């Protein structure tokens, strides 16, 4: 049935004796409790709006200002310098004392609002200071010390989740010349002298002709919009993509490496669903504490679309739809779709109650309806056919109502009938299959359009598949870290006339999934603990190792993408760090050419420092690729072509990399519980002939890697590249450790927090 039978609150019938009215007090009580919960949420949201609206002050500070003004007036002093008297003349219907009181309160309110604006302006200036990122680790300047003190004074009160929103600075638009200079430097190691001269000529021609014109439009947008990149990035990079989002866009997150809290599938599902809904409650109430900027970055608006959100297909562009507080989740089990109510009369069901519902679904013997089992393949294939099928078959009637249940659900849950994880006779192969299962599954047993889908396996292992357009990996990673730590379930009713289209989408998705070569491996020889003893940034160490591994694997260097964050700015998302630099290439060539250890160490230090500087530049708004991307979008709006921008935007990222953040260290005590190691997550390759590499630095002694490529490319092999990564890490460590006492106090290398 499409919906559960609703409880009837009252019934009446007309009889010869009159109207026979029957009330169901239990049903009325349920309606009352549900209404109370709804009003509590409204009041809570209204309270939070007021608190955020006056941040960094507090609503109670108005009372102190008003009392102070009244006290000074009582002492025959006029703090308003005559303004209260002018306001007093506007009140003609009050007594003299009443006019004085009202005028003083009006002036107090105006003064209070002025102070809030001044404090917010000061906080914005403080948050615009980024020089602390460029200072050497352990050597803090006096300016930065003063900045930290002032920042704590202004934001000392416990902030809400979005309190920093309006105080964050806008992302600056770099100068065209600066961006072009940095771009040419980034491609120099990849081009011959002749190719580099040609690219330099194209850049100079662009700067002297079209660049400044496009820049003016971009600066105008930066004045008007809160972020000149984010909306175009979301639309043109994600929502306008017409190919499958499975593998190409969506990414995955894994469970613990060694530990499974329970092998009972229903119990693990009940605990996971409960934890996620409690997290949603914290997001709605804005109870998650923003991380201080000096430590990392504050959580921002991306959390708002974490739950109850779906990407709906369109012919030209997709649309993100968000609803408020769905009281159910959508569940897929053995080809059937179910709506699982998780609230009763405004109360969140316990994990045990949800477990019973999940077990009922698992025990349901009813077979899927014709076409129902593989319906999810529509979300895995090309977007245009899905949009057309949706319009033709899901725009009205029972199909629309059933589809609405999936799309409006808090999130999607798959009860997978397979077992996954590392344990078994083939731990390496098992991890690879685990990754592929989360990345694409059977191509029809995930709903790839949902903001995120949870997968609970038969043996209690779990994982996550996330849609990328609404948020970046750190937002989902924060949710997943928290998760790791009698209502009726009802199946849907579908009527299908589109089984041929489902089969067509499944064929496209299956070909894409079968082509993905995934390899997951934990590197246990050493971790960030040993790297830091060498006074080296762990992220720079890994990125330079990836350059060495790629050079050994392919015999050349390539354009390398490393994701960094721009969360220091309002509505910031990501920027690209071009990790392949002149300095990293010089080190790789020296090491492979048999240069001496001292020479290799010197070149490595230069490469590490260069990488850290590139990372800081990207984080502070001086990146390359987002600026060039926006200039390209402006050129398309104006209908003008730029050979330079066209070539830059078409360059393939043969090595795409990203670090999965561990943001809530207080949740993990790896020293006393080393088995609770997270595997992190991964993504598909960006280029057909390239690699996708994701890594997570876990504790002091382990780094987990996720490598992906395509079987169809004869030049790539994920397992081979994984072996090259491990060897590169070992070889660089051997070079840096050679004849180096563990107590050596060499010059400190600048280090900054890694955010993705």
TrEMBL record:
Residues 171-726 form the Choline/carnitine acyltransferase domain. It comes from the Eukaryota. PROSITE patterns: ACYLTRANSF_C_1, ACYLTRANSF_C_2. Keywords: Acyltransferase, Fatty acid metabolism, Lipid metabolism, Membrane, Mitochondrion, Transferase, Transmembrane, Transmembrane helix, Transport. Gene3D superfamilies: 6.10.250.1760, Chloramphenicol acetyltransferase-like domain, Choline/Carnitine o-acyltransferase, domain 2. InterPro entries: Carn_acyl_trans (IPR000542), CAT-like_dom_sf (IPR023213), Cho/carn_acyl_trans (IPR039551), Cho/carn_acyl_trans_2 (IPR042231), CPT_N (IPR032476). SUPFAM superfamilies: CoA-dependent acyltransferases. Residues 1-47 form the Carnitine O-palmitoyltransferase N-terminal domain. Its EC number is 2.3.1.21. The chain crosses the membrane at residues 54-75, 101-123. One of its GO terms (cellular component) is mitochondrial outer membrane. The active site is at residue 468. It catalyses: (R)-carnitine + hexadecanoyl-CoA = O-hexadecanoyl-(R)-carnitine + CoA. Pathway: Lipid metabolism; fatty acid beta-oxidation. GO terms for molecular function: carnitine O-palmitoyltransferase activity. This is carnitine O-palmitoyltransferase.
């Amino acid at each position: 049935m499409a919906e559960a039978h609703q409880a009837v609150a009252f019934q009446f019938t007309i009889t010869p004796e009159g109207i026979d009215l029957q009330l169901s007090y239990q049903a009325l009580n349920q309606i009352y409790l549900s209404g109370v919960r709804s009003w509590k949420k409204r009041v809570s949201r209204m309270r939070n709006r007021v608190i955020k609206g006056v941040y960094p002050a507090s609503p109670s500070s108005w009372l102190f200002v008003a009392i102070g003004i009244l006290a000074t007036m009582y002492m025959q002093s006029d703090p308003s310098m005559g303004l209260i008297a002018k306001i007093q003349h506007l009140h003609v219907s009050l007594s003299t004392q009443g006019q004085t009181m009202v005028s003083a309160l009006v002036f107090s309110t105006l003064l209070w609002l002025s102070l809030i604006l001044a404090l917010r302006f000061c906080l914005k200036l403080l948050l615009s200071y980024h020089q602390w990122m460029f200072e050497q680790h352990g050597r803090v300047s006096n300016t930065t010390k003063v900045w930290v003190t002032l920042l704590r004074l202004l934001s000392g009160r416990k902030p809400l989740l979005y309190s920093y929103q309006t105080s964050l600075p806008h992302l600056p638009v770099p100068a065209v010349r600066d961006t072009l200079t940095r771009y040419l430097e980034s491609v120099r190691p990849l081009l011959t002298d002749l190719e580099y001269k040609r690219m330099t000529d194209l850049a100079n021609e662009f700067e002297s002709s079209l660049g400044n014109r496009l820049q003016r439009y971009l600066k105008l947008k930066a004045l008007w919009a809160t972020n000149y990149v984010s909306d175009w990035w979301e639309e043109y990079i994600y929502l306008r993509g017409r190919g499958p989002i499975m593998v190409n866009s969506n990414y995955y997150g894994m469970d613990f490496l060694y530990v499974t809290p329970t092998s009972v599938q229903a119990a693990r599902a009940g605990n996971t669903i409960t934890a996620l809904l409690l997290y949603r409650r914290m997001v709605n109430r804005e109870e998650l504490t923003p991380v201080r900027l000096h430590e990392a970055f504050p959580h921002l608006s991306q959390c708002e679309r974490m739950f109850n959100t779906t990407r709906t297909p369109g012919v030209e562009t997709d649309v993100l739809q968000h609803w408020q507080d769905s009281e159910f989740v959508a569940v897929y089990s053995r080809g059937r779709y179910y709506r699982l109510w998780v609230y009763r009369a405004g109360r969140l069901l316990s994990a045990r109650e949800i477990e019973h519902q999940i077990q009922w679904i698992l025990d349901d013997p009813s077979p899927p309806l014709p076409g129902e089992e593989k319906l999810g393949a529509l979300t895995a294939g090309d977007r245009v056919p899905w949009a057309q099928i949706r319009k033709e078959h899901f725009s009205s009637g029972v199909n629309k109502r059933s589809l609405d249940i999936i799309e409006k659900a808090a999130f999607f849950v798959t009860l997978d009938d397979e077992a996954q994880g590392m344990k078994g006779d083939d731990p390496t192969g098992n991890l690879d299959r685990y990754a592929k299962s989360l990345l694409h599954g059977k191509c029809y047993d995930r709903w790839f359009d949902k903001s995120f889908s949870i997968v609970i396996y038969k043996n209690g292992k779990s994982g996550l598949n996330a849609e990328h357009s609404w948020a970046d990996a750190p937002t989902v990673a924060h949710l997943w870290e928290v998760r790791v730590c009698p209502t009726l379930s009802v199946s849907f009713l579908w009527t299908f006339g589109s089984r041929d289209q489902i089969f067509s989408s499944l064929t496209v998705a299956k070909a894409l999934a079968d082509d993905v070569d995934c390899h997951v491996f934990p590197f246990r020889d050493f971790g960030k603990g040993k790297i830091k003893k060498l006074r080296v940034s762990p992220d720079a160490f890994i990125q330079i190792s990836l350059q060495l591994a790629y050079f050994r694997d392919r015999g050349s260097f390539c354009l390398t993408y490393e994701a960094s964050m721009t969360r220091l700015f309002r509505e910031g998302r990501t920027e690209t760090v071009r990790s392949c630099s002149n300095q990293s290439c010089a080190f790789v060539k020296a090491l492979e050419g048999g240069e001496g250890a001292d020479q290799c160490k010197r070149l490595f230090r230069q490469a590490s420092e260069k990488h850290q500087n590139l990372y800081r530049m990207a984080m502070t708004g001086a990146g390359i690729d987002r600026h060039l991307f926006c200039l390209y979008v402006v050129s398309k709006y104006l209908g003008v072509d730029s050979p330079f921008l066209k070539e830059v935007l078409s360059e393939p990222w043969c090595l795409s990399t990203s670090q999965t953040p561990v943001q809530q260290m207080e949740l993990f005590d790896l020293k006393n519980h080393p088995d609770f190691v997270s595997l992190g997550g991964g993504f598909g390759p960006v280029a057909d002939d390239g690699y996708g590499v994701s890594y997570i630095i876990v504790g002091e002694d382990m780094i987990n890697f996720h490598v992906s490529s395509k079987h169809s490319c004869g030049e790539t092999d994920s397992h081979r590249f994984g072996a090259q990564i491990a060897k590169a890490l070992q070889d660089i460590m051997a070079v840096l450790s050679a004849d180096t006492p563990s107590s050596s106090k060499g010059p400190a290398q600048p280090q900054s927090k890694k955010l993705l």
